[in-house]
Specification:
homodimer, 328 residues, alpha/beta, Rossmann fold, Dihydrodipicolinate Reductase, domain 2, 2 domains, six-stranded mixed beta sheet, globular
């Protein structure tokens, strides 16, 4: 199986390293970061490219672009792991469309294109007879899409509830445990590398809402958009609110929830009993699926991280390898 | 997709009802309980058969046996859901072999044959080019096998820990919550329908050990046998032990665990922090998989129940339908 890898940040590096280390019958024939590219039909020397990236800041030839690789390269599957742009989805959206039009399978960790253009991309993939997989877009290493697609096949999914943003969960954990203010806990999250310099996307619930939209479209195909999500962040929560919850044996978590029968699509701080399955400390993510036959199934795991996200990408690649790519 | 359904207890009824209700492109052409059978190449009238079973105690023609259906029936996939016999695996083991030899796919909820003869059955299925699936044997509705096979594909599974017996979890929950003795909690479990008249298999950890053996063979192909499991039940636990754990913010749960690097294959009562992901009340099951890339993934859900187990069977059927059975 030949792949083109576009994006060489934390996720891209993890994917490249795991493919190089594990020898899964996957050959990287094209690779690009934002300013350069490498092409080798015989298989790119990954350790060499990663060393170049580290020393010179870019990975290959400045005259080779991501577009060159996507539009002319020899590959079965595009791995698209550039940074998320939640407003336009670009440049990832264009990359994904170009690959699908060439009848290439696509695996992406990029929330922008999937949240913005799910219906169009799904139709384009079907029309061209290829797979579009995006396990890594929601809840990091937790195989939520595989569970929806195969593990719970035949079930009607009635509703879902999840902790889909590890940064918020960390901040709320620290506010509850130490009586910190929101600002103090955010500073701690920054120091630990859990929060970005601009934490808006995380703390205002935008990141969780984007993931909720992706889940809702995948499960119910209902054309949900980010603007449909009733959204409240955690940035106005006070230590007092957490203390009051604590006095009742409860705590507060940022919960993303969807229930099409109740027309519910919401991200907001919720008071939960401390024994609730969605209450856990730190940066983990979790998702509960409420179904007609299996009843409630909860999945808990790492929501971020280079190798953890690579796990989701590689699960998608192997699914395509085993179920879609014809082997000799 | 044509199926033969052997076994019409709680699980078999659930499967038949769900197939009849959901119309998943699955037709039941043969059906047997322990003393009678029904054959209809055009598709059996399920509500009629279930009504017969209820009124007369058997489902069909006393002159038609499970063997007749398995060996001469027209079907793609055998659904084998007869009661577990952990000593010989029979009659299920013979049923499954006969179907595989006829190049029929097999889906089973029967722990006996899989725990006793995994290697042989797996080889027989491969040789005949058919699928052998057994999602329902471990942790009821939780799609653990799908997660191992697809969701975490590419990961090395390093170890696992689980709550694989809901009866024990219920008894321990009640002992901790109310200070009940083991005998009192067992009586309550019986009244609720969570414990059998003879609770030996559950409370001595045999049921959990069988599931552990199935998981170990599936993941590591290491030929683990029931006699390899270091096993301690919950029947000698005292309310005092639970009280002492409680004083340290802990509780006791029956944990099944495997770690091939440490040669560990054990079912035993363990003291766990109350915040541990494997600590929850009631009859739920859970499994934590420790992997190299995804790190720890925990799955929680219903470990038993007619429709819940049917969910696992139907997930397997649809996987076979979509990935193995050629459609016109």
């Amino acid at each position: 199986m030949k792949v083109a890898l576009i994006g060489l940040g934390s996720v891209g590096r993890g994917v490249a390293e795991m493919i190089a280390r594990k020898g899964l019958g996957i050959t990287i024939t094209g690779l690009a970061d934002s300013t350069s590219g490498v092409i080798d039909p015989a298989g790119i020397n990954i350790p060499g490219v990663l060393a170049n990236k580290k020393t010179q800041g870019y990975c290959g030839d400045r005259n080779i672009s991501a577009e060159d690789i996507i539009k002319t390269g020899d590959y079965d599957t595009l791995i698209e792991v550039t940074p998320t742009n939640a407003l336009s989805g670009e440049p990832a959206l264009g990359y994904i469309k170009a690959a699908l039009l060439r009848k290439k399978h696509v695996v992406t960790s990029n929330k922008g294109p999937i949240a913005l253009a799910y219906k169009e991309l799904r139709a384009l993939a079907r029309k061209n007879g290829v797979a579009l997989r995006y396990e890594a877009t929601v809840a990091g290493a937790i195989p939520v899409m595989h569970t929806i697609e195969n593990g719970l096949a035949g079930n009607e999914i009635l509703a879902l509830y999840g902790v889909l943003n590890g940064t918020c969960n960390f901040i709320l954990t620290r506010m509850a445990a130490e009586g910190l203010t929101y600002e103090q806990a955010l500073m701690e999250a920054r120091k630990m590398g859990y929060a970005e310099a601009d934490p808006t996307y995380d703390v205002q619930g935008i990141d969780a809402a984007i993931k909720l939209v992706i889940l809702a479209n995948t499960i119910w195909g209902n054309g949900a958009k980010l603007s449909d999500v009733d959204r409240t962040g955690i940035d106005l929560l006070t230590p007092d609110a957490l203390r009051l919850a604590d006095e009742e044996g409860c705590t507060i978590r940022l919960i993303a929830e969807a229930n099409p029968h109740r027309h519910l699509l919401r991200v907001s701080p919720r008071i939960l009993d401390k024994n609730h399955p969605l209450v856990f400390d730190g940066t983990l993510n979790a998702l509960t699926l409420e179904t007609d036959m299996a009843k409630e199934i909860t999945l808990i795991g790492k929501g971020a991280g280079s190798i953890e996200t690579a796990s989701a990408i590689i699960g998608d690649l192997l699914y395509i390898r085993d179920h879609h790519v014809k082997r000799p």
